[in-house]
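Handoff note, outgoing to incoming analyst
You'll be picking up this chain. Sequence as last confirmed:
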Amino acid sequence: MARYRGSVCRICRRENLKLFLKGDRCYSDKCAFDRRGYAPGEHGQRRRGKTSDYGIQLREKQKVKRMYGLLEQQFRLYFERADSSKGITGENLLKLLESRLDNTVYRLGLAPSRNAARQLVRHRHFMVNGRLVDIPSFQVKANDVIRVREKSRQMGMIHNSMKRVRDGKMVPWLVLDKAQMQGTVLETPARQDIPVNVNENLIVELYSK
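Most recent structure output, in case you need it:
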């Protein structure tokens, strides 16, 4: 499957938003977005001018797609599923993306980034309700328990990531038990409980054309 192999710091600069794609580096003084908060490329600092409505909608879609690490076809399938479900399409889309297992592992603080969480899931380091799951796109549901596999409990990446998790910093729909190295999904996330700075309605407008 195709995947982006370039500098992920360029993605944050292009979208003009810190997407926390590089784990610990994003929290340090080495973060490229903090040091060069302008678009990448030779003329990045001089890019000006009015953006069309289509351009604004496209950038919003690209922002969400890159934030969750999806390809275009994958993202469109999520949109079609959200559009065919009851409720508001944009909110449904974000709920589906947030409920991915790799994102849930990241939100619980068991991985430093979504990319790292995706790799950990694929390498079979997590169990859901006592069953080994190695599919990053697996959809978690209310009352599901995500647990670090016994053989993986000494991994430095997981322990270092958990150190950054503080009381009161967890999203409301998740709870983490550090001692047991497991997290529980309390409920399906509501839009106000999804901490992403995006306007999902612009994505709906883009795909509705």
